[in-house]
């Protein structure tokens, strides 16, 4: 019968103490760099403290497994209870509009100008002829007006709470088109002579009864003639499209739901060929439609990710079954371990959702990815922990076995978990609310999953392990190296520390691979692979462009995508830039009025502007009216015989004739005259299909307005919040990656005493991120907030493929070939398992027709492949090269050595290596294999 070994004491040495049964502790020789000394000593001290804490915690967990399980489940339940107040944000504009930005201030001015309590809902209907002909034919115009009348009937209904119409104050947005359409459909128009018709149809300005009407915002794809047709006084040959714009208040739920039902009804009818209109086809776009399609995409993603979750479950079952098969663990116990391994990430996601809700944050549709992402990433810690548990299977005392496991895998799991938490946490500072909250929730979930790995999974593994034979004595870890008192429940005196064990040799193929990595051929191959990766990365980064569209948030197979394409064609020809003047000029003051005209002239001089001909500025029409009125009164003998000077004296009559338009805000002066308080005018631009162009043009507009602060003018665009991010996403991405890499390097430096090792990890992370951005560019990604967050997440994941190997390499003994071989032998299986599990969970996302989700899936796949290539090939080659270079520098660091001092320097080098190994030995627990390594079996 196999004899159960006793549980010897695990001793964690303070600095300067001696190892019982081992080599005497020595004082490290002072290197030349004081900064290196500080880093080395602090790393060694922190490593001792961390190993001691893990050892104590492992003992405590193994002593009270049921209590840890119950407390973990209780805390998760407490955090999750806040989900009863769950609020999901469906508004796509709110999801992508950052708070406290310049665009939000402009939105606030816009709402204040029109007396709105919240941002309005906007929609448009785009009409085109089914036969591809002109839309100005009678049958087509009548069908357009019939649909328009139905929409207006719903939007002009008054709200029962506020008493206001849903479209107030912009119910007449389509007024110019209505005038022209009704004039074209007049019963007696065909019998009128061209010179007697009240309508002179031209483009973009038509004239009706002497009043100019701007048609550029409603009639598109227009072909004109150089002369007017005699039968209808028109220069328009044909017009391919008609677009009607609608504005709806969102002050109350009643108004919002009325518009939602209307737009969704029209959207569904538009998909049925010829069902609603016979001669005209129409496309509908609205905020509610975009929100509905975004929800549909989230549901599709959740369904497909459920398939990925099943694949993940099968893979985890297979891996854990193979890991525990050698221990003769019952099948039911294996299934229980599988269940807990999957349950930990899901419970952490649930707790993270509850915590975010408790902080008052809404949940966004893209956050449906979080549970599956955490499941794919969280099982990585379970793989590493179970792998170490099996490597220590000859330690039959569960308490001591768990202590060895936690000392061994604690640093690796902590490094990857903390770096992932920080990477996601930095993503929280991205300006997009949807991506920001997604990163915050995922960061919290990663950290909670890290805790549950030790407080839930480890206790379950301990409980399911075979108990030691009756009468077996468990010895407590004597971390203070003191004799046990008589009151202690363990025997006294303590047993001596176990002698170091020789770790088992890796398989022959691993050793051959390590030899290849250490050879000149391996280095040449690494340089060749790196050259290919950086070529892809550089070319991809150079072709990367800043762009973003709301269509990236909903499925590409949605009819809304074609509507967005049609809208892009509209923006190529017509795009309004609204300017709100909050301190109007005094037109009677010549210099002030001239400055205002200069500001408008600069706006009209922009290359993308159509110029003064299409600028919608009421003040120019008022000046013409006022000039004619002044001339009339002078001709009647009532005016003064002096040069004309504009004034607001005739403003009351002018705005009354226009029907008191909402774009002019006035107030009555004490003398009864009207004064202008604020007004809006519009610069019509073109070539605004690309969102980057829109962002650049609008930034130019802001710069011009800022040159004239006396008018307190601001521009407005409903998509300005997103457009602003495009201008800063590149610098934000570079800054975020830099901060993330520095943070990860700091964390790694706490566990890895070697400066070169930390630098190697930082360089590998930078290399992975740079290559990843290039690969994503070649996969069709744009430089937008989605890509920015994806790269930040990948930065966190990249540590998983570098820190494990680097940490194990610097805790091993022997030559660099032996250290690399042992490190790869221990870490290659869990790294591959982690990559495969994450890829399986994310694989179905590749079939979701939503850009944001597909881009996320591509990022995961790319970082897995690039990360494994770095972690299993490039990083080991780099570490081997550093080891050789280090030895060469020690031998030849001072230039040419004197011949008589050569032997002394070589002897000093040998002593330095011995000192270095002894110093490392003091940083870990005795019995490492030392007892803190994966290769330790029973420690005695």
TrEMBL record:
<dbReference type="GO" id="GO:0018996">
    <property type="term" value="P:molting cycle, collagen and cuticulin-based cuticle"/>
</dbReference>
<feature type="transmembrane region" description="Helical">
    <location>
        <begin position="57"/>
        <end position="84"/>
    </location>
</feature>
<feature type="transmembrane region" description="Helical">
    <location>
        <begin position="406"/>
        <end position="430"/>
    </location>
</feature>
<feature type="transmembrane region" description="Helical">
    <location>
        <begin position="363"/>
        <end position="386"/>
    </location>
</feature>
<feature type="transmembrane region" description="Helical">
    <location>
        <begin position="303"/>
        <end position="325"/>
    </location>
</feature>
<feature type="transmembrane region" description="Helical">
    <location>
        <begin position="860"/>
        <end position="882"/>
    </location>
</feature>
<dbReference type="InterPro" id="IPR051697">
    <property type="entry name" value="Patched_domain-protein"/>
</dbReference>
<keyword id="KW-1133">Transmembrane helix</keyword>
<feature type="transmembrane region" description="Helical">
    <location>
        <begin position="437"/>
        <end position="464"/>
    </location>
</feature>
<feature type="transmembrane region" description="Helical">
    <location>
        <begin position="331"/>
        <end position="356"/>
    </location>
</feature>
<feature type="transmembrane region" description="Helical">
    <location>
        <begin position="524"/>
        <end position="542"/>
    </location>
</feature>
<protein>
    <submittedName>
        <fullName>SSD domain-containing protein</fullName>
    </submittedName>
</protein>
<keyword id="KW-0472">Membrane</keyword>
<dbReference type="GO" id="GO:0005886">
    <property type="term" value="C:plasma membrane"/>
</dbReference>
<dbReference type="Pfam" id="PF02355">
    <property type="entry name" value="SecD_SecF_C"/>
</dbReference>
<dbReference type="Pfam" id="PF02460">
    <property type="entry name" value="Patched"/>
</dbReference>
<dbReference type="InterPro" id="IPR003392">
    <property type="entry name" value="PTHD_SSD"/>
</dbReference>
<dbReference type="GO" id="GO:0006897">
    <property type="term" value="P:endocytosis"/>
</dbReference>
<comment type="similarity">
    <text>Belongs to the patched family.</text>
</comment>
<keyword id="KW-0812">Transmembrane</keyword>
<feature type="transmembrane region" description="Helical">
    <location>
        <begin position="733"/>
        <end position="754"/>
    </location>
</feature>
<dbReference type="InterPro" id="IPR000731">
    <property type="entry name" value="SSD"/>
</dbReference>
<keyword id="KW-0325">Glycoprotein</keyword>
<feature type="transmembrane region" description="Helical">
    <location>
        <begin position="834"/>
        <end position="854"/>
    </location>
</feature>
<dbReference type="GO" id="GO:0030659">
    <property type="term" value="C:cytoplasmic vesicle membrane"/>
</dbReference>
<dbReference type="InterPro" id="IPR048634">
    <property type="entry name" value="SecD_SecF_C"/>
</dbReference>
<feature type="compositionally biased region" description="Gly residues">
    <location>
        <begin position="927"/>
        <end position="940"/>
    </location>
</feature>
<feature type="region of interest" description="Disordered">
    <location>
        <begin position="889"/>
        <end position="940"/>
    </location>
</feature>
<feature type="domain" description="SSD">
    <location>
        <begin position="301"/>
        <end position="463"/>
    </location>
</feature>
<feature type="transmembrane region" description="Helical">
    <location>
        <begin position="760"/>
        <end position="779"/>
    </location>
</feature>
